[in-house]
Amino acid sequence: MRVLFVCLGNICRSPTAEGVFRRLLEERGLAGRVEVDSCGIGPWHVGKAPDPRAREAAARRGIDLSALRARQLADEDFARFDYLLAMDHDNLAAIEARRPADCEAQVGLFLAFAGHHDRAVPDPYFGGEGGFEEVLDLIEAASRGLLEELESRLERSP
């Protein structure tokens, strides 16, 4: 099972989702069965670490994002991942615009896994510290929902 989190530049929301979800997988003993990655729609931050504010907010919750580096969505991601989860509607539209006709991955808004089927994870980049905490709260809720779905799928697979 492979999950890709997607945001605009891959320095705030999607690496935070990657870190949060990795921790949940480790806690459930599923780290070896689910591959997790993140990327951005655009190339602006390729190779850079997550925003320092995102790293600090995550660290306060015991999540280390320091080893992550931004990358851009690639064509091969559509074949490699089972889930491509967008942080907002613009990210989703950009994924859908590039999605090959034969892509079987589940593509959608990440917050759908928290019961918010039309809600976006707000981009905290231009806001204050509170925005990063809100993003973490939303990502943790959606991550728990995604984990439930993946656990169910993994139980059904050999």
What report would you give on this structure?
The chain has 158 residues and is an alpha/beta fold. It has one domain: Rossmann fold. The chain is built from five helices and four strands. Strands 2-1-3-4 form a four-stranded parallel sheet. The protein is globular. The two termini are 12 Å apart. The model has no long low-confidence stretch (mean pLDDT 96). Residues 1-149 form the Phosphotyrosine protein phosphatase I domain.
The overall number of domains is 1
- Distance from first to last alpha carbon: 12 Å
Q: What's the CATH C level? A: Alpha Beta
Mean pLDDT: 96
CATH superfamily: Response regulator
**Number of E strands:** 4
Fill in the CATH topology.
Rossmann fold
The low-pLDDT segments are none
Largest sheet: 4 strands, parallel
Radius of gyration, in angstroms, nearest whole number: 14 Å
Large-scale geometry = globular
Strand content: 5-15%
Helical element count? 5
| Helix coverage percent | 40-55%
What structural class is derived from the secondary structure elements?
Answer: alpha/beta
Strand order of the largest sheet: 2-1-3-4
* Helix and strand element order: EHEHHEHEH
The second-level CATH architecture is: 3-Layer(aba) Sandwich
